[in-house]
Amino acid sequence: MMIQIREYENFSPLHESKKYENLRFVKKTWGGEYTLDVNDYQKTGGKPLKGFILIGKDSGKAIALTYLNSDGTESKYLWVPYFAGYINKNMRGDISSIKISPYKNWLSQPENEKKLEEFLDGFEESLEKEKTENEKTVSLQAQKDLDLILDMYNINSGIKKFEKADKDNEWRAILENGFIVIIKKRSSEDLVGEFRIYPKELSEVPYIEIKTEKNHEGFNFRRPGEYAIQRRIGMTDLKKDPVSLYLFKNITGLQEYKDEKSLLDYFESILRSEDTSYQMSDDSRSYQRGESQRKEIDLVSKLLEDFLTSKKIEEIYTKNRNK
Fold this sequence. Notes:
seven-stranded antiparallel beta sheet, 323 residues, 35% helix
Protein backbone atom coordinates (compact mmCIF):
# COMPACT_ATOMS: atom_id res chain seq x y z
CA MET A 1 0.00 0.00 0.00
CA MET A 2 1.33 3.39 -0.96
CA ILE A 3 1.24 6.13 1.73
CA GLN A 4 0.67 9.61 0.37
CA ILE A 5 3.07 12.21 1.78
CA ARG A 6 2.09 15.85 1.48
CA GLU A 7 4.63 18.14 -0.12
CA TYR A 8 6.20 20.70 2.23
CA GLU A 9 5.03 23.63 0.13
CA ASN A 10 1.43 22.46 0.43
CA PHE A 11 1.39 23.11 4.15
CA SER A 12 -0.36 26.33 5.11
CA PRO A 13 1.86 29.26 6.11
CA LEU A 14 -0.28 29.45 9.23
CA HIS A 15 1.24 26.18 10.40
CA GLU A 16 4.76 27.53 10.03
CA SER A 17 4.18 31.06 11.29
CA LYS A 18 5.20 32.27 14.75
CA LYS A 19 2.70 35.06 14.46
CA TYR A 20 0.49 33.76 17.26
CA GLU A 21 3.09 32.21 19.56
CA ASN A 22 2.57 34.88 22.27
CA LEU A 23 -1.18 35.06 21.88
CA ARG A 24 -3.02 34.31 25.05
CA PHE A 25 -4.82 30.94 25.14
CA VAL A 26 -3.38 29.88 21.79
CA LYS A 27 -0.68 27.23 21.49
CA LYS A 28 0.85 25.93 18.29
CA THR A 29 2.69 22.62 18.05
CA TRP A 30 5.64 21.96 15.79
CA GLY A 31 3.34 19.93 13.55
CA GLY A 32 0.97 22.82 12.92
CA GLU A 33 -1.77 21.78 15.33
CA TYR A 34 -3.46 24.64 17.18
CA THR A 35 -4.82 24.29 20.70
CA LEU A 36 -7.29 26.97 21.73
CA ASP A 37 -8.11 27.16 25.44
CA VAL A 38 -11.73 28.21 25.71
CA ASN A 39 -14.24 29.36 28.30
CA ASP A 40 -17.52 27.40 28.13
CA TYR A 41 -19.26 29.99 30.30
CA GLN A 42 -22.83 29.03 29.35
CA LYS A 43 -22.48 25.50 30.74
CA THR A 44 -20.89 26.77 33.95
CA GLY A 45 -23.64 29.36 34.41
CA GLY A 46 -21.14 32.20 34.39
CA LYS A 47 -20.90 35.42 32.44
CA PRO A 48 -18.80 35.99 29.31
CA LEU A 49 -15.51 37.65 30.18
CA LYS A 50 -13.24 39.84 28.13
CA GLY A 51 -9.86 38.43 27.23
CA PHE A 52 -11.03 34.84 26.72
CA ILE A 53 -11.94 32.73 23.73
CA LEU A 54 -15.57 31.83 24.41
CA ILE A 55 -17.92 29.05 23.34
CA GLY A 56 -20.80 31.03 21.84
CA LYS A 57 -22.88 28.07 20.70
CA ASP A 58 -22.62 24.30 20.47
CA SER A 59 -24.80 22.55 17.90
CA GLY A 60 -23.52 19.10 18.78
CA LYS A 61 -21.72 18.90 15.45
CA ALA A 62 -19.88 22.19 15.51
CA ILE A 63 -19.00 24.88 18.03
CA ALA A 64 -19.04 28.64 17.53
CA LEU A 65 -16.01 30.43 18.88
CA THR A 66 -16.25 34.07 19.84
CA TYR A 67 -14.73 36.71 22.14
CA LEU A 68 -15.90 40.00 23.58
CA ASN A 69 -14.94 43.23 21.88
CA SER A 70 -13.87 46.23 23.96
CA ASP A 71 -17.48 47.49 23.98
CA GLY A 72 -18.71 44.17 25.40
CA THR A 73 -20.33 42.89 22.21
CA GLU A 74 -19.56 39.44 20.85
CA SER A 75 -17.29 39.05 17.86
CA LYS A 76 -18.37 37.34 14.69
CA TYR A 77 -18.66 33.59 15.26
CA LEU A 78 -16.06 31.18 13.95
CA TRP A 79 -17.82 27.86 13.42
CA VAL A 80 -15.47 24.91 13.88
CA PRO A 81 -16.87 21.42 13.15
CA TYR A 82 -16.11 18.60 15.52
CA PHE A 83 -14.27 16.74 12.78
CA ALA A 84 -11.75 19.61 12.43
CA GLY A 85 -9.80 18.23 15.34
CA TYR A 86 -10.41 17.22 18.92
CA ILE A 87 -12.79 18.59 21.57
CA ASN A 88 -11.46 18.32 25.12
CA LYS A 89 -13.79 18.48 28.09
CA ASN A 90 -13.11 18.67 31.79
CA MET A 91 -14.61 16.47 34.50
CA ARG A 92 -17.73 18.65 34.65
CA GLY A 93 -18.37 18.14 30.95
CA ASP A 94 -17.48 21.70 29.96
CA ILE A 95 -15.39 22.22 26.84
CA SER A 96 -11.96 23.37 28.01
CA SER A 97 -10.02 23.39 24.74
CA ILE A 98 -10.19 22.46 21.10
CA LYS A 99 -7.42 21.20 18.88
CA ILE A 100 -7.57 22.12 15.22
CA SER A 101 -5.47 19.64 13.30
CA PRO A 102 -3.74 20.27 9.97
CA TYR A 103 -4.35 16.59 9.19
CA LYS A 104 -8.13 16.88 9.34
CA ASN A 105 -10.24 17.95 6.39
CA TRP A 106 -11.02 21.48 7.55
CA LEU A 107 -7.90 23.56 8.18
CA SER A 108 -6.44 22.26 4.93
CA GLN A 109 -9.07 24.24 3.03
CA PRO A 110 -7.85 27.80 2.24
CA GLU A 111 -11.15 29.49 3.13
CA ASN A 112 -11.16 27.88 6.58
CA GLU A 113 -7.54 28.79 7.12
CA LYS A 114 -8.43 32.39 6.29
CA LYS A 115 -11.35 32.35 8.73
CA LEU A 116 -9.11 31.05 11.52
CA GLU A 117 -6.48 33.70 10.81
CA GLU A 118 -9.08 36.46 10.82
CA PHE A 119 -10.52 35.18 14.09
CA LEU A 120 -7.13 35.00 15.81
CA ASP A 121 -6.12 38.40 14.40
CA GLY A 122 -9.33 39.90 15.74
CA PHE A 123 -8.86 38.28 19.14
CA GLU A 124 -5.30 39.58 19.33
CA GLU A 125 -6.43 43.08 18.37
CA SER A 126 -9.16 42.99 21.03
CA LEU A 127 -6.60 42.07 23.69
CA GLU A 128 -4.28 44.88 22.60
CA LYS A 129 -7.14 47.39 22.53
CA GLU A 130 -8.34 46.26 25.96
CA LYS A 131 -4.81 46.55 27.32
CA THR A 132 -4.40 50.05 25.88
CA GLU A 133 -7.74 51.21 27.27
CA ASN A 134 -6.98 49.70 30.68
CA GLU A 135 -3.56 51.35 30.77
CA LYS A 136 -5.13 54.70 29.92
CA THR A 137 -7.69 54.32 32.71
CA VAL A 138 -5.08 53.17 35.24
CA SER A 139 -2.72 55.96 34.13
CA LEU A 140 -5.33 58.63 34.84
CA GLN A 141 -6.03 57.05 38.24
CA ALA A 142 -2.30 56.86 39.00
CA GLN A 143 -1.99 60.60 38.32
CA LYS A 144 -4.80 61.24 40.78
CA ASP A 145 -3.01 59.05 43.34
CA LEU A 146 0.15 61.09 42.82
CA ASP A 147 -1.73 64.36 43.36
CA LEU A 148 -3.10 62.88 46.59
CA ILE A 149 0.37 61.91 47.82
CA LEU A 150 1.91 65.29 46.98
CA ASP A 151 -0.88 67.08 48.81
CA MET A 152 -0.87 64.69 51.78
CA TYR A 153 2.87 65.05 52.37
CA ASN A 154 3.12 68.77 51.57
CA ILE A 155 5.35 68.36 48.53
CA ASN A 156 4.66 71.65 46.81
CA SER A 157 5.64 70.91 43.25
CA GLY A 158 3.86 70.55 39.96
CA ILE A 159 4.18 67.53 37.68
CA LYS A 160 6.57 68.27 34.83
CA LYS A 161 6.22 64.94 33.02
CA PHE A 162 4.13 61.80 33.46
CA GLU A 163 4.83 58.69 31.39
CA LYS A 164 4.69 54.91 31.28
CA ALA A 165 7.72 53.31 32.92
CA ASP A 166 9.66 50.34 31.54
CA LYS A 167 7.99 47.76 33.78
CA ASP A 168 4.39 46.65 33.53
CA ASN A 169 1.93 48.48 35.79
CA GLU A 170 4.42 51.27 36.52
CA TRP A 171 4.40 54.97 35.67
CA ARG A 172 7.11 57.59 36.07
CA ALA A 173 6.49 61.16 37.14
CA ILE A 174 9.11 63.89 37.02
CA LEU A 175 8.24 66.80 39.30
CA GLU A 176 9.19 70.41 38.72
CA ASN A 177 11.41 70.32 41.83
CA GLY A 178 13.44 67.48 40.31
CA PHE A 179 11.89 64.63 42.28
CA ILE A 180 11.18 61.40 40.41
CA VAL A 181 8.21 59.34 41.54
CA ILE A 182 7.53 55.77 40.38
CA ILE A 183 3.90 54.74 40.78
CA LYS A 184 2.94 51.08 40.67
CA LYS A 185 -0.73 50.42 40.15
CA ARG A 186 -2.01 47.01 39.13
CA SER A 187 -5.52 48.10 38.17
CA SER A 188 -7.93 51.00 38.46
CA GLU A 189 -9.58 49.06 41.30
CA ASP A 190 -6.49 49.53 43.46
CA LEU A 191 -7.54 52.18 45.97
CA VAL A 192 -4.08 53.74 45.91
CA GLY A 193 -0.98 52.52 44.16
CA GLU A 194 2.50 51.99 45.57
CA PHE A 195 5.16 54.68 45.30
CA ARG A 196 8.90 55.19 45.27
CA ILE A 197 10.12 58.74 45.68
CA TYR A 198 13.62 59.68 44.52
CA PRO A 199 14.72 63.21 45.51
CA LYS A 200 17.46 63.42 42.89
CA GLU A 201 17.60 60.62 40.34
CA LEU A 202 16.71 56.99 39.80
CA SER A 203 19.31 55.29 41.97
CA GLU A 204 19.52 52.77 44.76
CA VAL A 205 19.64 55.45 47.44
CA PRO A 206 18.23 57.62 48.71
CA TYR A 207 14.58 56.89 48.18
CA ILE A 208 11.29 56.41 49.98
CA GLU A 209 8.98 53.50 49.23
CA ILE A 210 5.34 53.69 50.21
CA LYS A 211 3.55 50.33 50.26
CA THR A 212 -0.22 50.28 50.37
CA GLU A 213 -1.02 46.59 49.84
CA LYS A 214 -3.27 45.17 52.54
CA ASN A 215 -1.33 43.63 55.45
CA HIS A 216 1.90 45.11 54.05
CA GLU A 217 1.28 48.81 54.54
CA GLY A 218 4.22 50.93 55.51
CA PHE A 219 7.26 52.95 54.53
CA ASN A 220 10.75 51.86 53.57
CA PHE A 221 13.36 54.58 53.95
CA ARG A 222 16.76 54.21 52.30
CA ARG A 223 19.59 56.59 53.13
CA PRO A 224 23.18 56.41 51.81
CA GLY A 225 25.35 53.95 53.72
CA GLU A 226 22.49 52.61 55.83
CA TYR A 227 20.19 49.61 55.85
CA ALA A 228 16.58 50.18 54.87
CA ILE A 229 14.45 51.42 57.76
CA GLN A 230 10.96 49.93 57.75
CA ARG A 231 8.02 51.56 59.49
CA ARG A 232 4.78 49.58 59.48
CA ILE A 233 2.26 52.40 59.57
CA GLY A 234 -0.58 53.44 57.29
CA MET A 235 0.12 56.02 54.61
CA THR A 236 -2.13 58.52 56.38
CA ASP A 237 -0.26 58.07 59.67
CA LEU A 238 3.04 59.61 58.61
CA LYS A 239 2.56 62.80 60.61
CA LYS A 240 1.68 60.78 63.71
CA ASP A 241 5.02 58.97 63.76
CA PRO A 242 7.95 61.32 64.53
CA VAL A 243 10.51 58.83 63.19
CA SER A 244 8.80 58.33 59.84
CA LEU A 245 8.08 62.03 59.46
CA TYR A 246 11.70 62.94 60.20
CA LEU A 247 13.04 60.37 57.73
CA PHE A 248 10.61 61.51 55.05
CA LYS A 249 11.58 65.15 55.48
CA ASN A 250 15.28 64.30 55.76
CA ILE A 251 15.42 62.26 52.55
CA THR A 252 13.33 64.71 50.55
CA GLY A 253 15.32 67.71 51.77
CA LEU A 254 12.24 69.25 53.41
CA GLN A 255 13.58 68.86 56.94
CA GLU A 256 12.87 71.73 59.35
CA TYR A 257 13.84 72.52 62.93
CA LYS A 258 10.39 71.44 64.15
CA ASP A 259 11.01 67.95 62.73
CA GLU A 260 14.26 67.67 64.68
CA LYS A 261 12.53 68.96 67.82
CA SER A 262 9.72 66.44 67.41
CA LEU A 263 12.20 63.58 67.06
CA LEU A 264 14.11 64.72 70.14
CA ASP A 265 10.91 64.99 72.20
CA TYR A 266 9.95 61.50 71.10
CA PHE A 267 13.37 60.19 72.12
CA GLU A 268 13.00 61.63 75.60
CA SER A 269 9.49 60.22 76.00
CA ILE A 270 10.45 56.64 75.08
CA LEU A 271 13.47 56.83 77.39
CA ARG A 272 11.27 57.84 80.31
CA SER A 273 8.75 55.09 79.56
CA GLU A 274 11.28 52.28 79.05
CA ASP A 275 10.97 49.37 81.44
CA THR A 276 14.26 47.48 81.52
CA SER A 277 12.84 44.78 83.79
CA TYR A 278 11.60 42.95 80.70
CA GLN A 279 15.02 41.32 80.46
CA MET A 280 14.21 39.30 83.58
CA SER A 281 10.65 38.45 82.51
CA ASP A 282 9.53 34.91 81.67
CA ASP A 283 6.62 36.28 79.63
CA SER A 284 7.49 36.16 75.92
CA ARG A 285 5.16 39.01 75.02
CA SER A 286 6.64 41.30 77.64
CA TYR A 287 10.11 40.42 76.43
CA GLN A 288 9.19 41.14 72.80
CA ARG A 289 7.69 44.50 73.73
CA GLY A 290 10.80 45.39 75.68
CA GLU A 291 13.10 44.38 72.84
CA SER A 292 11.01 46.37 70.38
CA GLN A 293 11.25 49.47 72.54
CA ARG A 294 14.99 49.01 72.94
CA LYS A 295 15.43 48.81 69.15
CA GLU A 296 13.33 51.97 68.78
CA ILE A 297 15.58 53.81 71.23
CA ASP A 298 18.68 52.68 69.35
CA LEU A 299 17.18 53.78 66.02
CA VAL A 300 16.19 57.24 67.23
CA SER A 301 19.55 57.68 68.94
CA LYS A 302 21.24 56.97 65.60
CA LEU A 303 19.01 59.47 63.77
CA LEU A 304 19.75 62.18 66.32
CA GLU A 305 23.38 62.02 65.23
CA ASP A 306 22.27 63.89 62.10
CA PHE A 307 22.11 67.11 64.13
CA LEU A 308 23.42 66.40 67.66
CA THR A 309 26.82 65.35 68.94
CA SER A 310 27.29 61.97 70.60
CA LYS A 311 28.06 63.76 73.88
CA LYS A 312 24.78 65.67 73.76
CA ILE A 313 22.81 62.51 73.00
CA GLU A 314 24.48 60.75 75.94
CA GLU A 315 23.54 63.63 78.25
CA ILE A 316 19.90 63.45 77.12
CA TYR A 317 19.95 59.68 77.56
CA THR A 318 21.32 59.88 81.12
CA LYS A 319 19.03 62.71 82.14
CA ASN A 320 15.83 60.96 81.03
CA ARG A 321 16.77 57.48 82.23
CA ASN A 322 17.16 58.84 85.77
CA LYS A 323 13.60 60.16 85.87
